[in-house]
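We examine the record.

___
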Amino acid sequence: MATAYGYASSNKIKSWLWLIAFVLFIVVLGYVFSKAFNLPWLLPLAIMIAIVQALSSYWWSDRIVLSISRAKEVDKQNHKDLFRLVENLSISAGLPMPRLYLIADSAPNAFATGRDPKHAVICVTQGLIDKLDKQELEGVLAHEFSHIGNYDIRLQTIIVVLVGLVALLSDWFIYINIFSNDDSGGNSLFALVGILLAILSPLIAGLIQMAISRKREFLADASGSLLTRNPEALARALEDISKDKEPLEVANKATAHMYFTNPLKDLKGSKRSRFTSLFDTHPPIEMRVKALREMAL
């Protein structure tokens, strides 16, 4: 039986290995595209544009997400129990008290956002408060605290930069390939490889992005269990939420990855194939529950 510390460490290492693989993939992509048309400026320019886009997202994404989700800041007088749970977790985690927001929706879910622990936000739905018991709610909040403490928001920003780079490079390569002529000074073999990569690279980038996201969910489960010393409560919360078939109305594909569980419920209950599950932002609930119940503190 793996310990929670070992489980958390393993998922950290796997996350960073995926990230390193992502960076290497982009370097190879930039090299092939540059060689194809003898354009050494292609990769540096794409990097600069992607970084500018990501910085604006990094500074303003929390406000955008809260606005999209129609979340309202919580009044401490009216939500004393919620504040008490979060304050206790803040002390245990050694992190600043985050701002608390509430979504007036009966679907149980939660997410964390903010560029760093000093500017963090935890947002919960009314359904999460109403449908979970105190220990289960604490487990979900601890999971979100772990995303803050593990700097997952910052990591996601880096990944957005990398995905943006891949999209820019692929689009530019296809554009240049259409409008270039034989006097471009490039290499025809690299051009051939480049066409294949331009088609496949957005798919590969998406797969890597989702793989990292799933590892961070596993990591937050382990870290959250270490905070509460109660992985069973978090496992029960996952089971209770998975049984609730109500989709979260304010969620969409752009924000779904941020939530504790996938808020875009499959009401038909159809089984997902092994291939389509590679594009999921969250691991299957049963895998998360199994890992939590096998975890030794």
Notes: The longest helix spans residues 188-228. The radius of gyration is 21 Å.
